[in-house]
Structures are given as C-alpha cells and as structure tokens.
Design goal:
Largest sheet: 5 strands, mixed
Structural class: alpha/beta
Shape: globular
Order of helices and strands: EEHEEEHHEHEEEEE
Number of strands: 11
Helix content: 10-25%
C-alpha cells in the first residue's frame, strides 16, 4: 500500500488474511482536544476486524471496555481546564495502562499521559500521571525534523517498538520536562546524535 503523496510504501499484505484481530476493541480518543488522525489508519484497523470505540477525554467519565487505547494528536493545550477537571477519565486511563492494556499515544496524546501540562499562564494542570514529568509550550519549534525510532525494552516495562530504525518526523511546539528517568516506552532519539546531547524521549 502506498500512502497518497508520501512516496512511502508499506507492505501490509501479510496482514490481509489475519483474523487474530477479530473481537479486538480499540478505544480511540476523539473530541475537540484530540482530533488528528489519518483515516487510512483507522480504516486499516477496521479491515482487520478491529472494533473501533471512540471516546471523549473531555466529556466521557471513563474509558469504554477495550483491549487497547489510541490517543492521537490535537490541541490538549487549549482544553487544559476541562481535561484536568475530568478526574474520573484521567483515573480510568491510568488504571487501564497500569493494568497492561497497550496504548499508542502521539503528540497531544503523549502530553496527556504526563503528570501535568503547563498552560500559557504558567499554571500546571494535572493529567493522567502515567509518565513522570510535565509538558509546556516553548513558544517556538523544538526538535523540528526527522527522528529515528529505536527498539528499546526497559526494566519493569513491557512496552517497546518492535523493529529499529523506523523513520518518523517531529514537529513540536511543546517541550517535555522530565522530573525523573521514567521507563515508559520506546526511546526516540534525533538520528544525528543518538548517544546524547539532545533529549531522548521515552
């Protein structure tokens, strides 16, 4: 399959006859705060038999019953008060992840999993608390360009990205400030400096 305009070809033919995802439910965050998704990705899940259940971190009180969680990008920084006030949803998300339900969180969804997000006025708004640290708006682009996703398994953490050297891009206005080194996923390093010098996100 080639994604339109990208020049990138992804071989998914090995999945075409796979029925292992039938009866799997994926909870997908979708509301004003989380709205950045490629419809082709959702459609591919559905083709593989995945039941998509949308939920709103702003309005709903808890996650739907699901086997996995997808937290996409969006504008959580514009809805900090509402997201932070929905304590039951924050607790539901953290409890699900603590119970080893797999989650993919990108951009705004990744921010949502932190201890807090700092608003433009300097106030901190509590978030899900899965990842130790806070996010804040720098007011300018940071780590803009290509990155490499490297396979990483950390002690006490079952989450990793299978297969190293996967290309991705980073366009960030938000920065993540670590309060401690918290093993919560795969290491994302700038390819020009994989050993250090610039931030590695986990």
């Amino acid at each position: 399959t080639q994604y339109s305009g990208s020049g990138i070809e992804v071989d998914i033919t090995h999945c075409s006859g796979d029925t292992s995802l039938v009866d799997i439910t994926l909870a997908v965050a979708r509301d004003s705060a989380f709205c950045f998704y490629y419809k082709e990705n959702i459609e591919q899940f559905e083709k593989l038999g995945v039941n998509i259940q949308y939920f709103s971190p702003l309005e709903d009180k808890q996650l739907p019953d699901a086997d996995g969680i997808l937290l996409g990008g969006g504008y959580p920084e514009l809805y900090l008060e509402g997201l932070s006030a929905n304590k039951s949803m924050l607790e539901s998300v953290k409890a699900a992840i603590d119970s080893k339900i797999p989650v993919l969180a990108e951009c705004g969804g990744f921010m949502y999993l932190h201890d807090c997000i700092e608003g433009s006025e300097g106030k901190e708004y509590a978030m899900a608390g899965v990842i130790q640290g806070k996010c804040k708006d720098t007011g300018h682009l940071v780590r803009f360009g290509y990155i490499t996703l490297e396979e990483a398994v950390f002690e006490g953490c079952d989450v990793f990205i299978a297969g190293s050297g996967n290309a991705a891009d980073a366009v960030r206005l938000q920065d993540r400030l670590r309060r401690s080194c918290h093993p919560a996923g795969a290491c994302v390093c700038p390819p020009t400096d994989p050993a250090g010098g610039r931030a590695c996100f986990r």
